[in-house]
Design a protein that fits this description.
Blueprint (H helix, E strand, L loop, with lengths): L1 H12 L4 H4 L4 H12 L1 H4 L13 H6 L16 H6 L17 H12 L40 H13 L9 H12 L6 H8 L6 H10 L2 H15 L21 H12 L4 H14 L4 H4 L3 H4 L7 H17 L18 H11 L13
Helix pairs in contact: 3-7, 9-10, 9-11, 12-13, 17-18
Length: 365
């Protein structure tokens, strides 16, 4: 018991700045704070006041107002001054909660200890240079060492990777195995014994190609692959009987959009055309029910009580489903990680502003 009170007394009498005397590790203690709270305005994507804080060297170099930090002197470092500023209009970061006392203490101690950081620290890659934002270009076909194995352009790239990794291709699959694979892949059903026997005994050189063509023409092809697109585009069946005839929550007539997806795949409709019909079918062909049902994509996001909520959902699901990127952050500010500004967000919203949903019943002609 005596030992406990002695230890407690020592802890209480320890100076508050003792923790600051411990070496601050830049990668462990400092960089996570800068990444989380500073990179949005002073990183690879944006450099407010021509200042970057994504490397220690950039912070020492500074921007329009000179160096952001002065190694060894927190009192002369504008970075420390701005994060401790009491005036909210001047304090950094400008959005969200102020830095915590612990975060400020770590940054201050780091500067005081000389702002040490790895000499080979590299700045993050500019998000605009990411491969997903580059214009696709058709690459040249590699020359395959095993030319006999290559049957199509895709095989040429696989063969080149084999050579790079020192691998040898597996022997060709048995005809029965190959048929089962292509059936499950294209229509999600196994071949019947009769279909299996017919293919096994078919010795014509184009036997496999004819099977593929027949499966692609099958109604089950659209049903099988339509399910994957429905998952991406957020299709869901009506979840139960409700008194109203509204479409919110995928009610009543949303199945028309489902059937359009299946029919479009079976008709070999181009992906670009499918996107246009889903986003603007009402303007593209206002009198064509076969096209109008594609706008179930927009109706799926409809929210009766708040148009802004509906439009926000529409923009987010459009960007996620068609662009594979989230945009909801840019509703309130420039995107922190992707090259999307708040201005561009509302430019996209402008496309959907004229759209509305009719909920009145349509009588018989």
């Amino acid at each position: 018991m005596i030992r406990f009170f002695v230890l407690t007394s020592l802890l209480l009498l320890s100076p508050l700045g003792a923790a600051a005397e411990e070496p601050v590790d830049y990668a462990r203690d400092v960089k996570p704070i800068l990444t989380r709270r500073c990179y949005a305005c002073h990183g690879a994507l944006a450099q407010e006041s021509d200042l970057r804080l994504d490397t220690a060297a950039a912070a020492r170099e500074g921007g329009e107002s000179g160096p952001a930090i002065v190694a060894g002197s927190p009192d002369d470092s504008p970075l420390i001054e701005r994060i401790t500023e009491e005036d909210e209009s001047v304090r950094m970061p400008p959005e969200g909660e102020p830095l915590t006392a612990e975060e400020i203490s770590l940054l201050t101690a780091w500067v005081e200890q000389g702002a040490q950081a790895p000499a080979n620290e590299q700045p993050p890659q500019d998000p605009r240079s990411h491969w997903s934002y580059q214009t696709p270009r058709r690459p040249a076909l590699p020359v395959a060492a095993n030319a006999k194995w290559v049957r199509n352009p895709v095989d040429a790239f696989i063969a080149a990777k084999h050579r790079e990794l020192g691998l040898s291709p597996r022997p060709a699959a048995k005809k029965s195995t190959l048929l089962r694979r292509v059936y499950l892949d294209l229509i999600g059903l196994p071949p019947t014994p009769r279909q299996l026997a017919a293919f096994t005994h078919d010795t014509s050189p184009d036997a496999y190609e004819r099977v593929v063509d027949r499966l692609l023409e099958s109604p089950q092809y659209g049903e099988r692959w339509g399910r994957h697109w429905m998952d991406i585009w957020r299709y869901s069946d009506w979840y139960g009987n409700r008194g109203s005839g509204e479409i919110r929550y995928s009610q009543k007539h949303i199945w028309r959009w489902r059937d359009w997806i299946v029919a479009s795949l079976n008709a070999d409709k181009g992906y670009d055309r499918m996107l246009v019909e889903m986003l603007a079918g009402d303007e593209l062909a206002p009198g064509n029910p076969d096209v109008l049902r594609a706008t179930g994509f927009l109706g799926r996001n409809w929210y009766k009580f708040d148009r802004n909520v509906w439009l926000a959902e529409t923009i987010e699901k459009t960007s996620v489903g068609f662009l594979a990127v989230t945009m909801k952050c840019a509703r309130c500010h420039d995107h922190k990680f992707d090259p999307i500004s708040q201005h561009e967000y509302y430019q996209l919203r402008a496309f959907f502003e004229p759209h509305d949903v009719r909920v009145d019943e349509v009588g018989a002609a």
